[in-house]
């Protein structure tokens, strides 16, 4: 627990999160606190009942948590056995929440301890929170949580730990044992999602679950449900609904939710060079499901598999071909589709002068065939420059300021891809 995370020790983070969760409990809640490995180094029996569950208060637990200094071993199995022994002797039931940032270090097997206690008929629910543990180190802990009719939670940071503790303290031994599990995955990786289970037969209030990038467990009364599943991570993948999921009496159910997204790899160019553009991905209903700005480089957007239209708007260029829409872009699950679109421009630069000196003018450019005004700017005293799509244009220049009475001048230009036209107008 001395390991650092977010600029604090894990012990500091755990103490703050635990104090917050305990503070949320009712004043009448019976609560105890047990610590291990905090008094002696190398002692596999260093387990202390710091607050008696029969008489303990929230304030006593919070004070006890503040005084913990991690020193020694991680005797998970022995700690669990000691707590279970108390329940056996008192003939009481309880919800046990075990928080650990390490695996068993005293040759015990907490899963076996829990399984034997359950076989004996001792009534408890065991939740285990692995704080910053690697997935490959959690097998025994997951086994123990499942055997204890509880859940294993993986906490990765301070906020995560606080949320999980609130969930764990709300799922008590008085509530039915978990009978359904949900695992959400996208392209082979676990997702953190919210699940709302809607009973389409009994019409009860939706039952909620969060997976925390892991398998989530909850109790679903026997019925038929629709699951509304919303991703909580940075992704353009939409929430999905999985329908007609059955929860059966005395049967443990499971549902894997797949968000196998596809990726569109977009590169927008101008005359073959990377170009800054806005890109929108539009679904068949006309809704924009993803947007990105390219800034002249390749950009990826992630969307659900399906058929889309892609709208691209090139920035900092003028003409009739600065926007395009590409239909029937098929995005497949777990695949990347490259999309390259090249705009074309030429350059037009104009200077306006009297007696060899630059003057300020308004310049207006109209596409000749359609008569559409496509660009305009002032020359000030330095001239001005336009990037224009290839085509024929009418250019009008009107002097400003002290020269505003000078006659307007007009002319035509033909813009070709990659070419530069420079024009000096003399008034």
TrEMBL record:
Domain VWFA: 1-168
Family matches, as Pfam families: VWA_3 (PF13768)
Matching Gene3D superfamilies: von Willebrand factor, type A domain
Domain of life from the UniProt record: Bacteria
Protein name from the UniProt record: VWFA domain-containing protein
Biological source species: Cyclobacterium qasimii
Lineage of the organism: Bacteria, Pseudomonadati, Bacteroidota, Cytophagia, Cytophagales
């Amino acid at each position: 627990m001395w390991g650092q995370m977010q600029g604090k020790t894990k012990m500091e983070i755990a103490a703050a999160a635990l104090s917050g969760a305990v503070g949320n409990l009712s004043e009448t809640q019976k609560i105890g606190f047990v610590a291990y490995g905090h008094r002696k180094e190398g002692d596999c029996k260093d387990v202390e009942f710091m607050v008696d569950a029969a008489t303990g208060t929230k304030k006593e637990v919070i004070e006890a948590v503040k005084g913990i200094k991690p020193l020694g071993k991680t005797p998970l199995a022995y700690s669990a056995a000691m707590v279970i022994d108390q329940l056996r002797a008192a003939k009481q039931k309880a919800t046990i929440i075990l928080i650990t940032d390490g695996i068993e270090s005293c040759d015990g097997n907490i899963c076996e301890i829990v399984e034997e206690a359950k076989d004996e008929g001792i009534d408890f629910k065991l939740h285990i929170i692995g704080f910053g543990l690697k997935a490959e180190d959690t097998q025994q802990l997951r086994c123990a949580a499942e055997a204890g009719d509880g859940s294993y939670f993986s906490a990765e940071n301070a906020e995560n730990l606080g949320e999980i503790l609130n969930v764990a303290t709300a799922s008590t031994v008085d509530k039915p044992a978990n009978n359904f599990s949900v695992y959400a995955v996208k392209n082979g990786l676990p997702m953190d999602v919210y699940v709302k289970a809607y009973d389409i037969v009994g019409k009860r209030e939706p039952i909620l679950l969060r997976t925390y990038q892991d398998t989530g467990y909850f109790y679903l009364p026997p019925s038929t449900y629709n699951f509304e599943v919303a991703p909580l991570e940075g992704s353009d993948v939409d929430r999905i609904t999985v329908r007609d999921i059955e929860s059966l009496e005395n049967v443990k159910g499971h549902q894997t939710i797949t968000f196998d997204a596809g990726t569109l790899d977009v590169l927008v160019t101008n005359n073959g060079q990377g170009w800054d553009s806005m890109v929108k991905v539009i679904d068949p209903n006309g809704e924009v499901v993803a947007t990105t700005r390219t800034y002249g480089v390749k950009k990826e957007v992630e969307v659900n598999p399906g058929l889309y239209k892609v709208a691209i708007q090139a920035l900092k260029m003028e003409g009739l071909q600065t926007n395009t829409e590409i239909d029937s872009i098929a995005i497949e699950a777990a695949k990347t589709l490259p999309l390259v679109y090249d705009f074309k421009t030429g350059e037009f630069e104009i200077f306006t002068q009297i007696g060899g000196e630059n003057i300020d003018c308004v310049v207006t450019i109209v596409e000749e065939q359609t008569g559409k005004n496509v660009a305009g700017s002032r020359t000030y005293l330095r001239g001005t420059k336009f990037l224009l799509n290839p085509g024929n244009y009418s250019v009008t220049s009107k002097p400003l300021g002290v020269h505003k009475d000078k006659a307007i001048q007009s002319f035509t230009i033909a813009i070709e891809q990659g070419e530069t036209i420079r024009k000096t107008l003399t008034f």
